[in-house]
Design goal:
single chain, 256 residues, mainly alpha, 62% helix
Length: 256
């Protein structure tokens, strides 16, 4: 199916207009007597109910997705400064240079950066999870050959790796609550849970959108094509210049 060009409000307008068309057809009484089963009055009412339900389900799914996205962003947003503080806490401990370098390498992966600077840098707005004062800023992602791993999945994966590394480093024992190992472990679990919830909500939303699109825009069987068939029948029944057809001609249905 083609990509939808109709806005979300446009989909709802299509369903509203079918309800209006049904009300108009009902006013014709027994005069409305098509031979095509798909445009029987009862069939049109069933199609309108199906389409309305599909729109409502998608709206509900999108609400869940929006909330899940907001909750995920709240958890992921402060991760950059926290990782910087944690890495500095490790460097300020009795850990050796090799341990610090190994931790920094994981942090670079977490930030989606590379050890060597790239020749071509993007705008500053494209950077995220950047270092704060006390830690050298990670090189920005190149527009040429990308090595970025800054998807939510990669960030969660690399943060888990970082926490696991710290858990295996006896020297890492900060007193600050925000960067204690138990706090970081809880955060890693929360990152994973929030990201999974968001992914699940996205799958449900995509499925509901596909159902909505089929209900409204499937060729021949979809609500819009059925409604247009009903308008064509009214045109043939009363004539193209009749008041009846002029009334329904104003009821628009936007195809995908």
């Amino acid at each position: 199916m083609k990509k939808q060009s109709t806005s979300e409000s446009g989909h709802e307008t299509n369903v509203d207009n079918l309800d209006l068309l049904i009300s108009t057809i009902t006013s014709y009484g027994e005069k409305y007597n098509p031979a095509k089963a798909s445009i029987f009055l009862a069939a049109l009412k069933a199609k309108a109910k199906e389409a309305r339900a599909a729109v409502v389900v998608l709206n509900d799914c999108n609400t869940v997705l929006n909330r899940a996205t907001i909750e995920r962003n709240k958890v992921f947003a402060p991760l950059g400064p926290l990782v910087t503080s944690s890495l500095n806490a490790l460097r300020a401990s009795d850990s050796d240079e090799q341990t610090d370098k190994a931790a920094a390498a994981i942090v670079r992966k977490l930030r989606g950066s590379r050890a060597e600077p790239v020749k071509k840098q993007p705008a500053k707005a494209e950077q995220d999870l950047q270092a704060k004062p006390g830690e050298a800023a990670a090189p920005a992602k190149a527009k040429t050959t990308s090595v970025s791993q800054k998807s939510m999945e990669s960030i969660a994966d690399n943060f888990e790796r970082y926490v696991q590394f710290l858990a295996g480093t006896p020297e890492y024992a900060p007193n600050e609550e925000a960067v204690k190992l138990v706090t970081l472990k809880a955060l890693a679990a929360d990152l994973r849970a929030k990201n999974t919830a968001c992914n699940n909500a996205k799958v449900a939303s995509d499925k509901a959108r596909n159902t909505r699109n089929l209900a409204l825009y499937e060729p021949i069987k979809g609500m819009v094509d059925v409604a247009l068939d009903a308008k064509t029948y009214i045109k043939s029944l009363f004539g193209p210049t009749s008041p009846e057809y002029k009334q329904v001609a104003k009821i628009e249905f936007t195809k995908a």
